[in-house]
Amino acid sequence: MVEHDGLMRVFWPTDVVKFDRPGVVVGWRNSNLDVFVVAVLDDVDARDVEFHIKHGTFFRSSPHTPSHAFELCGHSSMHVLGISNPTDPSAMNPSWLCAVPSSSRRSPRITCAKASSVQLIMYNRPRPKGMQYISLDPIALALDYEGSDTRHPKTVGPDSAEEKQEKQAHEQRQKLVEKLKQHTIVKRVPSARDKALAKIVNQVNWSWELEQTLQKNVGRLGPRPKRSLSVSQQVVESAATMRNYVLQQLLEIFTLYLFPTIRQIFVSLLTLHRLVAEAFLVLLEFRIKPGRPALKDVSATAQQIEIRLQQFCYWPMQYVKLRERKSNWASINTSHPDYIRFYNSLWLVANDVIIGLALGSYIIDHADFVASAVEGLLKTYTVDALQSSILWLTGWPAGLKLNDELAAFLGDLFLWVIDYWASKYLTRLRDKLLTMAIDCVETLGPFLPKIVWFIGFSSFAGASMPIAMVSDMLSALTVHIYSFYLASARIYHWQLVILQSLFHLFRGKKHNVLRNRIDSCDYDLDQLLVGTILFTLLFFLLPTVVVFYLNFAVARMIIISLKAVFDTMLSCLNHFPLFALMLRLKDPRRLPGGIRFELRDTLVATSATGTVTEPPTSVIYLKSVPLSFTAMFNQYFQMAHRIRKHYLSPSVLLCLLTGRFVPPIDRRNLYSLQYSMLPAKRATVGEMWKALKVEKKTPNATQYPVLPKLPTLPGRRMGRTRSGL
Amino acid sequence: MLTTTPRLYTRRPSPTTAEFTVTTLPPPTIPLRILRVLLLALRVALVLLTALALHARWLSSPYAQPSLPSTCPTGDGWFSMEAVWYALDTLHKSSLGQLVGGLVENVPLVVLLPAAAALCYLLALRVHTTESLLVMRGLGVQTSSSPATYLASATSRFIPTEKIRDIFVNEAFRGFEVRYYLIVVVEGEENVVVVFPRLLPRRSIVETVWRGARACLYESRGGDTTEEKG
């Protein structure tokens, strides 16, 4: 009586190794010879167990309905799978398995009349109370991996060319894979056993709780207890009842009168806070025209404020979602990533504030010193260094014989602007930010301690705040370098373009714009003469312009890389997977990254003494693979990749060489990381209010047992439930 | 001598489960074992020597605590921290310690620290590479590969049967030679999974594994055991 390939697959929990009494093996029968063992119930009759499983006796006293478990595990009820330590093996149902504990090995011996070979897969039960679980796919720490792409479908600038290239490569690969698939001759239809894997993963996740329920209720099947309670036990019991009653009353007063009031106040405060946050968010996201950047796209500070506000808006919703977890079986693991995200962001904000407190108190205590240091730095690097480098360039730098007159003209021009920037001031506006943008270094001098004090004070809202402000201040205070860069790049670019067209003229050709090609052209003698003279002139003036351009381009690149450093610090403070890292060290089974199998060496069963001959068995251990560190930092790798693609690409180098403008990377693009932790669309005020209201009702609905609970004494309980049946 | 050309060994406790392991580890013999133990001892000694050099450099810096206990602890003080410090001190004062200290004294930290880290990494590298393919009917296949160093753990990848489109032997140019390799085509993925990617064993081994894996993974229907694609 062997089924087609006679392979029996048995999933067996590793904690069930010693079962000396005759018992019943209970679990799921996924297909005929594919069984999943949940529990071994000792000293019961198989038919009895089957009857009670069918009638749901085991789940009668469980706090939640078992339908969730049955739905996820893919069956309408559990099954009796076989007998352990059978007294009479011949009397068994032929499809039942027979399990005997083995003294030499860690795994039991499995035999079945229908099976010719056995795959015994040992699994560890994940503890659902400790939020452990296994999964086939790695746990997703980010909200959705594709979120950044779907939200900003179009990217502008030189990225588009690279993306096109990437897409082309992708398509090419798809074609290759398609071709590879054509090699397959026989398309195999997966059997029921192959398809069961997803179901089995759920069954593994549920097995701990189900086993607990089964073992707790197995006493109901047993015989009635013979003995009634002794006098002392009765005294103890009534005393315990009294204590429980008093406690229950106290709890009731608290839950019925005090708690709702506190809760109401808290919910109103939250909603008020949400309204204020909404106003700020609208302000930050306001765009003058649809295509124009909003405030948050321009300024790092605004972006930082926006992220914090978004987080504050998201937390209540997240918390409500996490509370729902408590009111169901612990084995449902859909909200575990949410849990990790929620506490990660809470922890990061707390960390941020702690670091910010230290930083802020230092800055405030030493405001004068910090201000003078900042002023010194500003003066040294953005004024003096620039001036000296321009002076150096005007006087034959490194032995290069530049054109004296042009060098002197350009040098004077830039020096004059720097002078103006450094010593005079344009307007004195009350608004600090605007002042910084327009004002100049020396006017800033007296204000600097106040600004520094303000930044220090802002850092009580988290260390990310002063960093964002410093980043903004850096771009505001180096506006002159930016404008020099723009001006010199423009001059350089013009000159290059003119030189190119004059070169064509020199050769007797010209660029045909209409057909985008080089045509021959008959120039007059005077045209050729003037053109050639101009070409020579411009060509000899080119080195002078180049050195000035290079000077400012290098300064600009330094500023961009400084800002990149600030951005990296910000993203570390805002989105470091701290909680996940801690979990990885503390309990790796809470961060499943897939599964792995291990084939164990099995000693060839020399069952000279055994009554049952064992079919060939392979013992496999099913283990959970913890999430790899690279997967944890996947978002960071993506961001690094994006930055590298933007700034270290050949097209950017070409832009730099020809003096065209190098566009800064889009903030939205850079900060896709930030949004991976937040939903694309935040919940409105009304939705939040509703969610909080609903949550208010759920605990009340379950907390109305007026009768005091009796203490659980095993004998008594069994008697009562038995009579209740 | 420590490694061989990749060789195959198979574990197959039941007809539906098999593990094919390709390894460069030669079959264990007594001289080989002795050699491996010696190699391990050499590695440990070199790591300790690196640590000693770093400590000597630390002692020569102005931040170090100048006083080390130079009295030999007696009795049950042998397992205390003081005994360790004393042993370190005597080690530093020995000719070997003097030599190492003299060597690293004038090396700048910028060079010394990366050099020490690189040395430790080199010493942690494994000599042998082991890669395996575990085939389980009804579940799927799993490729795993031993890590490059002793510090990391093995990496593995499990592919459920449902997702396996096909397993076959392919060929490719690598340098000036043609290599045959086993690949698993996975449903819905644009990269194929190469089995034994680092060792890329000889064709005979690949063919054996391919036949074994197919026989193990699918129920035999006859007629599909001789096909091969290039």
Automatic annotation (TrEMBL), chain A:
**Mind listing the GO molecular function terms for this protein?**
transferase activity
Keyword Translocase listed? no
Sequence intervals crossing the membrane: 451-471, 528-552, 558-583
Q: Name one GO biological process term.
A: GPI anchor biosynthetic process
Q: Which GO terms describe its cellular component?
A: endoplasmic reticulum; membrane
Q: Which domain of life is it from?
A: Eukaryota
The molecule here is called N-acetylglucosaminyl transferase component-domain-containing protein
Question: What are the start and end residues of every segment in region (Disordered)?
Answer: 149-174
Q: Name one Pfam family in it.
A: Gpi1
* UniProt keywords, alphabetically: Membrane, Transferase, Transmembrane, Transmembrane helix
Residue ranges annotated as compositionally biased, kind Basic and acidic residues, are 161-174
TrEMBL record, chain B:
Q: Which GO terms describe its molecular function?
A: transferase activity
**Transmembrane annotation, as ranges:** 37-58, 107-127
Q: Where is the Phosphatidylinositol N-acetylglucosaminyltransferase subunit H conserved domain?
A: 132-197
- Ranges in coiled-coil conformation: none
Q: Which residues form the signal peptide?
A: none
Under which pathway is this protein filed?
Glycolipid biosynthesis; glycosylphosphatidylinositol-anchor biosynthesis
An example Gene Ontology biological process: GPI anchor biosynthetic process
Q: Which InterPro entries match?
A: PIG-H, PIGH-H_dom
GO CC terms:
glycosylphosphatidylinositol-N-acetylglucosaminyltransferase (GPI-GnT) complex
* Keyword terms: Membrane, Transferase, Transmembrane, Transmembrane helix
Q: Which family does it belong to?
A: Belongs to the PIGH family.
- Name used for this protein in its record: GPI-GlcNAc transferase complex
User: From which source organism is this entry?
Assistant: Emericellopsis atlantica
